[in-house]
Write a structure and sequence with these properties.
The chain is about 40% helix and about 15% strand. By secondary structure, the protein is α/β, with parallel strands linked by helices. α3 links the parallel β3 and β4.
């Protein structure tokens, strides 16, 4: 039986979901949270769909032992690979997932939109269907970014490699026409400013976090699970690596704000 005082679980393949967690914590100030980073198996974006599902299911089973009232999949790849099956498997539990914020960019009137995502996300039928919905409203450029999430997992020491990687990745013929970037992986917001530096024109960036937060609040309210008071809020961090250094990194990134994007 779900209870209003139970925490909300947020998980990702690694540190990326902390960028999502920061938004949810601000939008739901009375809720307790548990963040789980599957850093031992990161990144998910270049694994097979079946492998990703098995990893996600293992994480969910572990989180259920923590008596959570909702699970937020803060990983575009994991959402695509696992969310529908998990919703059928655990119908009593609100399970939400992050998806590329393409609609948000189109609704804002952007005309040349770059969608950056892991190879698995870009290839997913759900993203391809989403893209097809908006091709008559905007020019959409889909850009798989193999290896970028893994570099971001390395933190500050990976800065030179990240800068070189982005310079090569974003050296595309359409670059001067792009007016918006949709970051289709929760790792990528950590390098938002480094991405912007590759463009001479102003670049609007969309993550989808606010829409996810609104959906989470709505689903909890519909089930009478939305907490209205909490004098002793808690935010717990867990990692499949279960190493002090990894947990310290989670705390550091959370407390600094979206810190790796300011690597420079």
């Amino acid at each position: 039986m779900l209870d209003v005082t139970m925490p909300i679980a947020v998980f990702d393949s690694g540190v990326g979901g902390i960028s999502t967690l920061q938004t949810l914590v601000k939008m739901l100030p009375q809720e307790n949270f548990i963040f789980f980073g599957d850093s031992a198996n990161a990144p998910y974006g270049e694994k097979s769909r079946d492998t990703v599902f098995k990893l996600v299911d293992q994480v969910v089973q572990q989180l259920l032992t923590k008596n959570v009232k909702s699970i937020v999949i803060a990983c575009n790849t994991a959402t695509s690979a696992a969310k529908p099956v998990l919703m059928e498997k655990y119908p009593e539990l609100p399970i939400l997932g992050i998806e590329p914020a393409l609609k948000e960019a189109v609704d804002a009137g952007k005309h040349n939109i770059l969608v950056m995502g892991t190879p698995l996300t870009i290839k997913s039928p759900k993203y391809q269907a989403q893209r097809a919905r908006f091709t008559d409203q905007a020019t959409i450029h889909s850009l798989p970014c193999p290896g970028l999430a893994e570099l971001i997992e390395g933190g500050h020491q990976s800065l030179p490699k990240i800068q070189t990687y982005l310079a090569q990745l974003l050296n595309i013929p359409e670059r001067d026409q792009i007016d918006a970037a949709v970051l289709g992986c929760t790792h990528y917001p950590f390098v938002t400013e480094l991405i912007r530096q590759q463009f001479t024109q102003p670049l609007a960036v969309y993550t989808g976090y606010t829409g996810l937060g609104n959906n989470l609040r709505r689903q909890l309210a519909q089930r009478d699970l939305l907490r209205t008071t909490n004098p002793k809020r808690t935010i717990e961090f867990m990692s499949s690596k279960n190493e002090a250094a990894e947990l310290a990194l989670y705390h550091q990134l959370f407390e600094q704000g979206i810190g790796i994007r300011q690597l420079q």
